[in-house]
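Pasting as-is:
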Amino acid sequence: MRRILLAASVVALVSATAVFGRAVTQTNDRSATERTLIERERQINASLAQQDKAAFLALVASDGVWASTGSFVPAGALAGVLNQVEITRWNLVNPNVLWVDPTTAVVSYVWTGNARFFGRQVASTRVASTVWTKRGNNWVSVFHQESDAHTKQ
């Protein structure tokens, strides 16, 4: 009887250790992925500011969509007019990652900066979010939205 109890205790301890180890690994992986997604968000903003079509398309799904100020623009169409984007200053404030499932996450933040799109001034403070999904081994943006932030004056 003692051997059975001892064996059961060892099995329980090994199982608990394995589960705990997996949970720590998943937490570390998730934290690393969150840092990666926020960095990719910064890379998208940099590609827009630099009007770098290749860098932009490397981060955005070919079937991705950008929603802003009452319109939806396919990612490919936006890439085609990057020469109409003028960003002289930008920052992502308080980026946050919300997990939908292990392969989909939403990065939300406040965008601040100075920009023009087709010659029209963009609000200097905008609320933005991007849906990222993992396709193969690569995280790509599939949907981005932003809207003017209204602040009390």
